[in-house]
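Sharing in case it's useful to others searching the archive later.

Someone asked me privately for the predicted structure of HTH tetR-type domain-containing protein, so I'm posting the question and my answer publicly. Question first, with the sequence:
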Amino acid sequence: MNDALDPSAVARQPTQRRAKDRFDRILQAAETLLTEQGLSGFSIPALAERLGYTRGSVYAYFPTPYAILNELVGRYLVELEAVFFSRAEELRNLGWRDGTAAVVDHAVAFHNAHPAARLLILGGAVTDDSYRAQERTNQRLGELGRMVWYQGGLLPEGPPDLTTLAADIGTACFRRSFFEHGEITPAYRDAAVAAMAGFLGPYMEAAVKPAARARRKAG
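And my answer, the predicted C-alpha cells:
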C-alpha cells in the first residue's frame, strides 16, 4: 500500500522492542481517538496529549497524521485478509454466487465491528496520498476476491481487473450505507451482493458455457 506514497504519509517502522511497544500504543490510542472524535477531532497534538507524550515522540514514527491513518488501514486489511484466508476453502466450495454473498457477509461483520476501520476504509479519501492508499486498498480487496471468484480460471485475468472492480462496487454500496446510517445495514448488504453478482454474472456465464460444451463433447 505504500508504493508511490509521499514519505510523510508512511510510518517509520521501529526495530527495537521498546520502540515497537510505543509505536503500538500510539496506534491503539489513535484508533480510540478516531472512534470517539472522528477525523475532525483527530490530530497528532490531540493524540500526544491523550498519551501524555511529547509531540516529537509521535512525529518520530509518524511524520503526519496521514502516516498514522495509512498504517491503521494497513493493519485493518491484514485482519480482513486473515478472515478470508481462514475461510478460503469454504468460500471456494460455495460456488461463486454463494461465495460472493459470504464474502460480503464477512466484510459487513468486520466493518460493523470496527468503527475506526469503517471510518478510514469507507469514509473517503481526503488527500492525494490517501486517495492512492484507498485505491491500493481496493486492489487488495480484489486480490482477496480472486480466491472466491477466479474459480480455477473461469474468470479472465483482465484487463479489466474484474475482481477489483467487483470490490469497488461492493465498497460503493458500503460507503453509501456508512454515509446514510453510520454502519452497513442489511438493505445495503443485500444491495452489495446483488450489484456484485450482477456485474460478475455475465463474465462467469460466458466462461462456463464453453467449459460445459467441452465436457459434453468429451463425455
